[in-house]
Amino acid sequence: MPQTEAPKHKLIPVYIMGQKHMVPEGSTIMGALEYVGYQLKRGVGCREGFCGACATVYRVEGDYKLRGGLACQTVVEPGMYIVQIPFAPAEKAVYDLDELKPDISVFQRYYPELFRCVACNSCTKICPQEIEVMDYIQALIRGDIALAADLSFDCIMCGLCAMRCPAEMAQYNIAILARRLYGKYLAPKAEFFRTRLKEIREGKFDEEIARLMKMSREELDKAYYSRKIDFKIT
Ligand code: SF4
Ligand code: SF4
Ligand code: FES
After folding, report:
1. Does ligand 3 have an atom closer than 6 angstroms to the CB of 54?
2. Are 143 and 158 in contact, with CB atoms under 8 Å apart?
3. Whole-number pLDDT of residue 231
4. Which terminus of the chain is less hemmed in, N or C, by CB atoms within 10 Å?
5. Is the CB of 172 under 6 A from ligand 1?
């Protein structure tokens, strides 16, 4: 009689889309989904917590709260109920950045729902990036685009905040407009960068680029790690 091999990992029960499965303890939700046979075509991207594609809603056994997280970063717990959200079909304004002014009128025009914020903080509580979402929304209501751009810098557009918002706004789409306006109109200009671009266009580095293009992967690795980092941003 063939012997059944003991599983290498302890298995714990979770409920995926309402169905009970045994999955390895310590795995991420994404790992658990794949372990039980889901082939992820949506709701997956970088697998490293950067792309925001894997927004997931879950509840931990014995707790009434619905929580949100990234499937690639959140570790399963026994009795967890898991549902993946492929994407949030949120409103995204279309605009030409060159025609906008970096002030509050832009938000009044493209995202008037911003001003309905009731300061409930639900968005901040669900954000897997631990961003002060409500604070950047409130900064925009005051017209402080620079602060909103700064506070929202780590947003990965997962969409979870929008799903909790009683004012029905897509905070992340509003925030990316703030960052675009900041980057184009308000951020201090890096003169070093302009100078270097000009030098590149004038061919100052053509010879060096040609030399790099002929290198093997190993030679490139060596050159990269032994390079002298010598620049200052002014
Ligand atoms: S701000 Fe919203 S969209 Fe951005 S990471 Fe946080 S929850 Fe996700
Ligand atoms: S969830 Fe919506 S209403 Fe509540 S603080 Fe965040 S943006 Fe404002
Ligand atoms: S797959 Fe990219 S954040 Fe999870």
Report:
1. yes
2. no
3. 58
4. N
5. yes
Give the integer Cα–Cα distance in Å for 82 and 69: 10
Distance of alpha carbon 85 from alpha carbon 16, whole angstroms: 12
Atom 2 of ligand 1: nearest residue by CA position: 161
Name the residue at shortest CA distance from atom 3 of ligand 3. 49
Which numbered atom of ligand 3 lies nearest the CA of 46? 2
> Residue ranges per domain, the chain?
11-84, 97-186, 191-225
Q: What is the mean pLDDT of the chain?
A: 93
13 C-alpha to ligand 1 centroid (Å):
29
For residue range 115-124, what is the model confidence (pLDDT) as tens digits?
999 999 999 9
Q: Is the minimum distance from the CB of 160 to ligand 1 under 6 angstroms?
A: yes
Give 70-99 pLDDT, tens digit per residue.
Answer: 999 999 999 999 998 888 899 899 999 999
**Which pLDDT does position 163 carry in this prediction?**
93
- pLDDT at residue 233 is higher than 80: no
Question: By C-alpha distance, which of 156, 158, 114 is closest to 139?
Answer: 114
Cβ neighbours for 191, distance < 8 A, ≥ 6 positions apart: 234
Residue 229 and residue 209: Cα distance in Å, rounded?
17
Decide whether any atom of ligand 3 lies within 6 Å of the 86 Cβ.
no
Q: Which CATH number fits domain 11-84: 3.20.20.80, 3.10.20.30, 3.10.20.740, 3.40.50.2300?
A: 3.10.20.740
